[in-house]
Amino acid sequence: MEELCEMYARSYMQQQTAIEFFLVDRKSFFLNFEKMDRDRIYSKILSLRPDNLRKYHRGPPSLLIKTTNLTDRWQRGKISNFEYLMKLNSIAGRTYNDLNQYPVFPWVISDYKSTKLDFSRKSTFRNLKKPIGALNKERLQIFLDRYHSWSDPTMVPFLYGSHYSSMHTIGYYLIRMEPFTTISIDLQDKYFDHADRLFHSIERCWENCLNVDVKELIPEFYYQPEFLKNSNKFNFGVKQNGVKIDDVVLPPWAETPEQFIRLNREALESDYVSQNLHHWIDLIFGYKQRGDAATNAKNVFHYLSYEGAVDLEKIEDKTMRESMEATIAYFGQTPSQLFTIPHPSRS
């Protein structure tokens, strides 16, 4: 108990039943309880007044963010874009301890063909005002046509049939590193997925996000080159064109994984991204996450991906409850909403 320095009430499977503990040695633990037990244990720990416990919160993350000067510090350039996004993720309940609520980061580069990146060109960057699913106009129209002609009275309409962050997304990106290799195999019935569907190329992954799925990125794209290397020499198989899957194929402007990470991080901290990042924050953590603003921004996902959409404890039908739990677990979860008004831009 003397090692405990931070404690936060968290959600698990969209239910307020978990606590995340942070220790002074930087270890952390994410534990799920019965709902009444969670609150009782949280209160009991507070009553013991651990010597090193300095930060704790039980309540909406939108209230926690208001107790900090985080946004003001970011606006004034006192913290980097990377640090600000990591802090927002943490406050919104995103954690490395739950693959269903893994931290989410934006794609910021859209040029994966050039031999050299030009940060002075707007076309180098992804449009941060739009969700991934709305970047391709032709594909978006297909989503909109389905949305406006929705005929299932038992289902709340949504635009996208997949989410920008899920346990499958994490396993997809980190398949070359344990324990994610084993996790990926478990998600595919004890086998690797077909080689052509594995994460094998940055450019191909970006093209898929524009045409097939709506994945955003994870923090590792901005600090950890190891996940791009097949250092463990796993046999991922051979694609239909006869090419064996090994290290991730990098864009022409990056000769090594280290260079890719460095340039991706430079792009994240660039003037263009700094001036537009607040738009992406509105979509993921802010006022465009829900309601009419989300509809207008073409940012509507399955209703069970949103916190508070359902109270599983009140569902008596076992089959229905298990179905909802499976949807929450495999579809993906939207972060807790932190802001209900437009996020300010960086000064």
Automatic annotation (TrEMBL):
GO terms for molecular function: protein kinase binding. Residues 1-46 form the BEACH-type PH domain. Pfam families: Beach, PH_BEACH. PROSITE patterns: BEACH, PH_BEACH. Keywords: Repeat, WD repeat. PANTHER family: BEACH DOMAIN-CONTAINING PROTEIN (PTHR13743:SF112), BEIGE/BEACH-RELATED (PTHR13743). The keyword Plastid does not apply. GO terms for cellular component: cytosol; membrane. This is BEACH domain-containing protein. It comes from the Eukaryota. CDD domains: Beach. The keyword DNA-binding does not apply. Residues 59-346 form the BEACH domain. One of its GO terms (biological process) is intracellular protein localization. It comes from Arcella intermedia.
